[in-house]
Amino acid sequence: MSIGLLLLIILGLGLAGWLVGRQRAVASVAGDIRKLHSLPGYYGHTVFLMTTVPAFLLMIAWTLAQPVVIESRIADMIATSDIPEGSSRGLVMADVRRIADGLDAVVARGEGDATLAAVGVEGADIRARLAEAGVAVGGEVKPSVLAAALEYRALSGTALTALAAVALILALAGLGWSISRIQGEYRARNATEAFVMWLLIGCSLIAVLTTVGIIASLVFETAHFFRLYPAADFFFSATWNPKFGGGSSLGIWPLVWGTLYVSAISLVVAVPVGLMSAIYLAEYASKRTRSWVKPAIEILAGIPTIVYGLFALITVGPLLRDWFAQPLGLGSSSSSVMTAGLVMGIMVIPFVSSLSDDIINAVPQSLRDGSLGLGATSSETVRQVVLPAALPGIVGAVLLAASRAIGETMIVVMGAGAAAKLSLNPFEAMTTVTVKIVSQLTGDTEFASPETLVAFALGLTLFTLTLGLNILALYIVRKYREQYE
Amino acid sequence: MKDLVMETRVDVQTVKIEARKAQVFYGTNHAIKDVDVDILDKTVTAFIGPSGCGKSTFLRCLNRMNDTIASCRVEGKITLEGEDIYDPRVDPVQLRAKIGMVFQKPNPFPKSIYDNVAYGPKIHGLTRNKAELDQVVESCLRKAALWNEVKDRLHAPGTGLSGGQQQRLCIARAIATSPEVLLMDEPCSALDPIATAQVEELIDELRSQFSVVIVTHSMQQAARVSQKTAFFHLGNLVEFGETSQIFTNPRDPRTESYITGRIG
Lengths: 485, 264
Ligand SMILES: Nc1ncnc2c1ncn2[C@@H]1O[C@H](COP(=O)(O)OP(=O)(O)OP(=O)(O)O)[C@@H](O)[C@H]1O
Ligand SMILES: [Mg+2]
What we know:
The complex is a heterodimer of chains A (485) and B (264).
Chain A lengths: L2 H26 L11 H35 L14 H33 L4 H7 L10 H39 L6 H41 L2 H6 L3 E2 L7 E2 L2 H32 L2 H16 L2 H21 L11 H26 L2 H9 L4 H30 L2 H7 L16 H9 L8 H35 L1
Helix pairs in contact in A: 1-2, 1-5, 2-5, 2-6, 3-4, 3-5, 6-16, 8-11, 8-13, 9-11, 10-11, 10-14, 11-13, 11-14, 12-13, 13-16, 15-16
Chain B lengths: L1 H12 L1 E12 L2 E12 L3 E5 L6 H8 L9 E9 L2 E2 L7 H7 E4 L10 H12 L5 H14 L3 H4 L12 H14 L4 E5 L7 H14 L4 E5 L3 H7 L2 E6 L2 E7 H6 L4 H7 L5
Parallel strand pairs in B: 3-8, 3-9, 6-7, 7-8
Antiparallel strand pairs in B: 1-2, 1-4, 4-5, 9-10
Helix pairs in contact in B: 4-5, 4-7, 5-7
The complex binds adenosine-5'-triphosphate and magnesium ion.
C-alpha cells in the first residue's frame, strides 16, 4: 500500500468521522441543537481531528525514522573487507540504497518478482539490468552489496505494510474514542479551540527550531574551523589572503569593513529617498497618483539583482570612475564601494518606501487633524506628529533594508569587485563577507580545510551582525515607546 | 480710557463669522443645506441637534478642516471679519491658527503633556523663551482644569491620560495658540460633572477674549454657557436665536419637540 493511498484512506475516515460525530451529537439531543454545548459542526471537528492528526503525526515520524532503523539492521551484512579503498561505509550504504531503488524500477518495468530472485543468484548481469531500467551503478556490484540491497527492499516493504497497519489502527482508535465521547454536554467547541492553539504553537515551534538548528550547525562548524585555524588570527588579522594548500591568512576585518561600508552607502541613498517618497505618497499625493507611483517604485524590488549588477558594472562603475575617481585622483578602478553602494541603495529604496508608506498611512487621521487644526502646515504635521508616531515602524523598514543590503552578493561582486581591502577611499575596490563565502565554496572542495570551513565562521559573523542590528533597533524602538506611549 | 470702553461695547455686537447659504456635500450626500449663521464676537454660540444632523460638519467648515476630506465640497459664502475664508487667496493654515478647534474625539499627540500644549506656541513662535513657554503651558493647563492632575508628570506621554483628561489636554492645547475663535465639538462628552463645570467656567472666561462655538448634546449645558443657540435638524438650520428665547419660547415646533426630548 502506498503512502498516498494511506493518506487518502485516513482522510476519508476522518471525513466519515466528521459526519458521524455531527450526526451523533444531533441525535444525542433528539435533534434540538439548542441543547448542545457547541454547534454540531464542532463535534464533527473533534472526531475529524482525533482521527487524522495522530495518524498523520505517526506517519511523519515513521518515514523520518524508517531509513535510519533499516540501515542499522543491514549495516553488518557488509563486511569491512567489502568496502573499497578510499571509500567509506556511508558511501557503500548510499550504493545499497541506489541499487534498491533500481530494483524497484526493474520491478516497475513489469519484469516481476521472479526475475528479481534470479537476479539475486546470478549477480553478474545486475548492472545491465539496472541500466536498462535507467539506473546507472558505478563499478562492480559486490554480492554482499546486492544482498544488502535486496534485504533493504524487503525490509522497506515490510515497514510500509506495518506503517499502514499501525496508522489505520491509530486512526480507527481515535475515531472510536472521539465518537464515544460525544454527548450533549461535551464541550466540543473548547476542545477544537485547544487543538487550534496547539496547532499554532506547533507551527511557531517549527520556525523557532529551524532557527536554532541553523545557528547550532553554524556554531558547530565554526568550532571545527577554529580547531584548524587560530581564532586570534581570524579576529585580529587585517589581511584576507586564502591559499588553497595551506599558509593562508584569514583575517575577517577587511570583509566586515567592506560589508559595513557598502551597506552604509546604500542606506545613505535609500533611507532619505525612500522615506521622502513614502511621505509624498502618504501625505501629499492624490489617490490617483499614489495608485500608479507606488507600484512603479515597487517594481524596483522585482528587478533581479544580477540586472542591478550589470547596471553597476557597465554604467555606474565607469561613470563614477571617469567623472569622480580619476578627476579627483582617488583611483582608476571602475569597481568601487561607491558603485556597489549606490546601486544597492537604489535596489533597497522600495523596501524603505513601501513599508514606510503603509506605516505612515496607519497613523490615525485624527492626529493630523489635531495638528492642522492648530494651524500647522502639512510638513510641520509630518515632522512633528506623523513621523514620531510612525517611527517604530519606520525603524523596522530601515532595518529590513539594512539586512537586505548586508546580505546582498551579486551587486557587490559586479560593482565592488572581489579584492578584500581595508581602506577609507570609497572609490577603491573592496568586497564583502557574502562574496567571500561564495568564493570560498565555489569549486569542488571538501569541508575539511580551514579555507572552506571559514565560510561557516563568516556566516556566523554575518548572522551576529544582523542580530546586533536587530537588537539595536529593538532598543531604539523601546526607548522611544517609553517616551511616547 | 473712555474711548476704549466705548469700543469694547461696540465690539460685543460685531459679527465675527458670517455664513450665508452654506452647503456641504460628502460626495452626493447633501449634509448641510442653506445654513445662515452669524457668530458674534465675544459670545458663546451653541449648536444643538440630533446625532448626524451635521453639527460637526458645519463646525469643520468654519476653519476649513473639511479640506482634509477628499470627498467633501463646500458651497455658499462663509466670511471671517468680512473676508471670504474659501477665497483662493486665503491660506487655510493661517486661518486655522486664528480659529482653533477641539475635536469630538480626544486626539492628543504621541508626545509629552508639556509638548502637547507647547505645540501651537512653538510652531507659531508665540513665546520668546523657555520661561515664557513654561508659563503659557501652565496657565493653559490651569484654565483647562488639568494642571493639578498633571503638574508632577508634565513629561509623561499625553496618550497615557484618561479619556476625560485627554479631552481637557486638547482644550489646553487649543487655547495655547490664543485663537480668535474657538470651535469645540462636544468638549464635555467624556467628562465627569466636576470637570464639566470647570470647562464651562473656562468657556465663560474665554468669552471675554474669543468667540466660542460649542457643539453639545446637553440642553442644560447649552442653556448654561451660551448666549446664542442654533438648532440643526437633518442638515437644515431650523432655528437660530438668543439662547433664552430658544429654550423658553421656540418658534419652530421641531425645536420645541427636540428640547423637550420628543425628537432626537
Ligand atoms: N467624513 C465623512 N464622509 C462622508 N460623510 C460624512 C463624513 N462625516 C460626516 N458625514 C455625514 O454627514 C452627516 C453629518 O455628520 P456630522 O458628523 O456632522 O453629524 P453630527 O451632527 O456631528 O453628529 P453627532 O452628534 O453624532 O456628532 C452624517 O450623515 C454623516 O454620515
Ligand atoms: Mg459630531
